[in-house]
Amino acid sequence: MWVTMQRRSIPLTRSQLFPLALAALGAMPSDAYGALTTPSILAPASTPAHQIYTLSQFVVLITGAIFVVVGGLLAFVIVRFRARKTDADHEPAQIYGSAQVELAWTVIPVLIVVVLFLTTARIIFAIQDAPKPQTAVDVTVVGHQFWWEFRYPKLGITTANELHIPVNSPSAARPTYLQLLSADVDHSFWVPQLGGKTDLIPNHPNQMWIDAEKPGLYLGQCAQFCGVEHAKMLLRVYADPPDQFAAWVKAQQRPAVQPDAQNAAAVAGRHVFETEACANCHTISGTTAKGTFGPDLTHLMSRATIASGIAPNTPGNLRSWIQDPNTLKPGALMPAMQLSDQETNQVVAYLATLQ
Amino acid sequence: MADQTIPMPGTLDAERSRSAALLEWLHSWVITVDHKKLGILYIVYALVFLLIAGAEAMAIRIQLAIPHNHFLSPELYNEFFTMHGTTMVFLVGMTLIFGFGNYFVPLMVGARDMAFPRLNAFSFWMTAFGGLLLYFSFIGGFGMYGMGSAPDITWWAYAPLTAKAFSPGHSTDYWALALIVSGFGTLGAAINILATAFSMRCRGMTLLRMPLFVWLMVVASGDTLIVITPLTAAQVMLIIDRYLGGHFFDTQAGGSATVWMHFFWIFGHPEVYVLILPAFGIASEVIQVFSRKAIFGYPAMVAASVGIAFVSLSVWAHHMFTIGMTSVSNAFFALSTMMVGIPTGIKIFNWIATMWGGKIRFATPMLFCTAFLFQFLCAGLTGIMLAVAPWDWQLHNSYFVIAHFHYTLTGSFVFCFFAAIYYWFPKIIGRMLSEKLGKWHFWLFFIGFHMTFDTMHFVGMLGMPRSIYTFEPDRGWNTLNMIVSLGGFIQAIAVLILVWNIVDSFLHGPLAGNDPWDAWTLEWSTPSPPPPYNFATDPVVRSRRPLWDIKHPNDPDWKYER
Fold it and tell me: Which is nearest to A354 in space by CA: A276, A285, A264, A274?
């Protein structure tokens, strides 16, 4: 069953024709590595996204044909039957209807609906009820106002905002199954290149699965309004080749690095972190910080961005975030920490050691 | 001697009478139970809110014209898009349909007023009060904490974002109460339309001789009665949750967020049909008159309308394909949604067949209706795309959806009601609107509309979700969003031209006479504006187009109608 779920390879020209056309308009920029930074549904990179894309091409074909026929009729009528100065004075012939014609344009749409429905149902079941292979990676995604928590229950990892998944290879399918939960309000997990979206609803656990054909970074964001900073609840998914994923897992499973005794600022920063309010909300494994309200910071430096993907993870940004999160993300739930400049520098120095 | 008047001192009286006359005039609008005056009140009220919600849309588009813009704060943006949606649906859409329904249903069925004139006045003032309550939240939203807080929970207001924990202050209360209050007004108006159409028709007007606009108002009113109920129930539950310790939607205490979704969309989806069906009615009248032909397949048009209203009650969960329903539920709602396309297709074909063989006069009302046909065709096709559940998993809550429903609500509903304004203004006011300004209005609005909403489809497919107050500059959405915003401003200019046209023509427009369009339904048989009693003698009709029969005594409709 699983084998039949594999994507049939689609010729590059056809599957990328439309995105390329848009790219030609200057609409689709790439990042420094040449990866697409436009989260386009027209550039699918996973099994479910490809199934949806292929289905959508079929639907466009049918609706396009309807558009051409009906739109063409309308255009013809507008041009052909517009009133002209040369028209005779009397009213046109009155026609009240025609049973045959009306029957025809009732039956044809019925047939179209049957075809569309059967195709749709097939893909619904193919994606939604796909059996989970033994090799699948399990991730529990918890939506928070306004960030993402990722737990790998089988691997003992907790991280935030940047999801790592293994790349799928045709020989060894390794999809990622997401269990979707919410800690507060409704959110929605949407990484267009990897698949459709599914909502994270409190008290209503949901499931979805993704895989990735190529290594790379796939962007998305929350797709269900969740409050003031909904717009800045961005989402990054890294698809790593198998060996790289294994290395990442291994690194994440280690407890936090202890700051080098030589690094006085970092040692002091750890003390500040553990004794100030930071520890109430954040966890750093191997320390007394065990809060769960905010993102787990054990391996903060392994992440490229902070604050749910809105700013690069640089000491400068960390600093201004700690001083007042509202400067980067007005409405973020983390309070301004009211630390002195020295304490802030120490905490940043400490965080910078959390590889 | 006895019948001579005694002259009173002149000057003082004249001054008093001017202000007294103004007061009396205002008073007459407040106490009126005349369906025509109430209809005008509804329409003016809708147009005022159209301008307000349009201004909110413009602020939204300025904010989104460039990435990382700081024109609006996140809080204000969220309030504006919530208020834009709520206002357009409840205070513009619903009031426009009941405004025109109020004015023209009695005239078109040859009645002298609505069935329940006092209920009619009550309904209008409830609706009006609901709107004021909603907008009062800008002043009173945070209660004693300060001013300037309107609802910021989206117009679908998903739980538990509306719970006290996530939505403190009173803005959500204003939202819920405003919809309850205006909902009562809407129910009253719907009951009135149904009673009028079913029991006030003139002699000879059987149900199958009612003008299609009346039929569509009947169907829409029937759906209204069914769907306002779950909305009101949901709002009451929300208020109970917020103030009386209920846990209907309180997920922290075992409540269900999805129950709110079901209640809201059981209302919300038929609601858009409630709006669009009267627009179909307008298109049916205008297309007949300006094509100079009787409607093609009248019985099928009636049946299709009833069919749409019926099927629309079983499609609500297509708004919920992403909430994790079972695959069977997803398949069911995909099918039921696609089935809406069948009666809708019949209607489009019948309108085109009505134009076929006609002599189409492209006056402003017909321009708007022709554009409506094109845009409604597109909206139907993107609707099919969204009904394809797996594709909806991608498109849902993206700008593609925004584009789709603005194609139905702006490209179809608003276009038809602009047509209605140009078509019926001469009847209501007695003066013609300027055709020249009308053409400017049409073409600017048409171009602006397509710039904005055609482009939005692509922004959505490139992954831009709705409800976001800003976006990242590297996503490839920059150019397209700028085009969307520019189109929005062009539409705003077009609407201002309409406002100018209405004001100018109200004062200086050429007199219309009874029947400026050479039309066929009963409202054109009385003077413009109609006298308070509508018809000097009760009309008697023998066909669907009584004025055609009079104008063509040798070739009357009743000989041929099926």
Answer: A285
pTM of the model: 0.93
pLDDT at B11 over 90: no
**Residues for chain B: how many in total?**
562
Give the residue with greater pLDDT, A61 vs A171.
A61
Task: Report phi then psi at B461, rounded to 5.
Answer: -70, -20
Q: Looking at the domain assignment, is residue A322 inside a domain?
A: yes
Residue B263 scores a pLDDT above 50: yes
Using left for φ > 0, alpha for ψ between -120 and 50, and beta otherwise, residue A286 falls in: left
A268 with A244, same domain: the answer is no
One-letter amino acid identity for B356? W
Q: Length of chain A, please?
A: 355
The number of beta carbons lying within 10 Å of the beta carbon of residue A261 is 8
Q: Least CB-CB distance to A113: which of B330, B339, B462?
A: B339
| CB within 8 Å of chain B, chain A residues 89-128 | 91-98, 101-102, 105-106, 109-110, 112-113, 116-117, 120-121, 123-125, 127-128
Mean pLDDT of B483-502: 97
Please choose, from the candidates B402, B282, B263, the residue with its C-alpha nearest in 3D space to the C-alpha of residue B320. B263
ipTM: 0.92
Can you name the residues that pair with A147 across neighbouring β-strands?
A: A144
SS3 of residue B282 by DSSP: helix
What's A113's domain CATH number?
A: 1.10.287.90
Under 8 Å between Cβ of B186 and B240: no
Residues 6+ apart with CB under 8 A from B515: B524, B525, B547
**A26 CB near a chain B CB, below 8 Å?**
yes
Assign B115 a pLDDT band (cuts: 50, 70, 90): very high
Give the DSSP letter of residue A203.
T
Best of A91, A108, A182 to disrupt the B interface (most B CBs within 10 Å) is A91
Angle between helices B327-355 and A99-128 (to 10 degrees): 150
pLDDT of residue A3 exceeding 50: no
Q: What is the mean pLDDT of chain B?
A: 94
Mean pLDDT of B367-372: 98
Is residue B168 very low, low, confident or very high in pLDDT (cuts 50, 70, 90)? confident
pLDDT number for residue B10: 55
Residue A3 lies in a domain: no
Question: Is pLDDT at A2 greater than 60 in this prediction?
Answer: no
Label residue B401 by pLDDT band (50, 70, 90): very high
Query: How far is Cα B489 from Cα B503, in angstroms, rounded to an integer?
Result: 21
In total, the C-beta contacts within 8 angstroms joining chain A to chain B are 300
Instruction: Report the percentage of chain B scoring pLDDT > 70.
Output: 96
> How many CB atoms sit inside 10 A of residue B86's CB?
23
Q: Which two tokens stand for residue B94?
A: 């619903």
Does A150 fall in a domain? yes
C-alpha–C-alpha distance, residues A181 and A141, integer Å: 6
Mean pLDDT of B483-497: 97
Domain count within chain A: 4
Which residues on chain A are in Cβ contact (under 8 Å) with B73? 330
- Put simply, the answer to whether B334 touches A230 (Cβ < 8 Å) is no
What are the residues whose beta carbons fall under 8 Å from the beta carbon of B458, sequence distance 6 or more? A22, A27, B480
Structural domain boundaries, residue A99? 44-81+94-130
Residue A292's CATH number: 2.60.40.420
Domains of chain B: 34-559 (1.20.210.10)
Q: How far is B167 from chain A (nearest CA, A)?
A: 9
Residue type, A261: A
Extract the tokens encoding A345: 């520098």
What type of residue is A94? Q
Residue B8 CB burial class (10 angstroms; 0-12, 13-18, ≥19): exposed
* Residue ranges in B32-116 assigned as alpha helix (H): 35-65, 74-86, 94-108
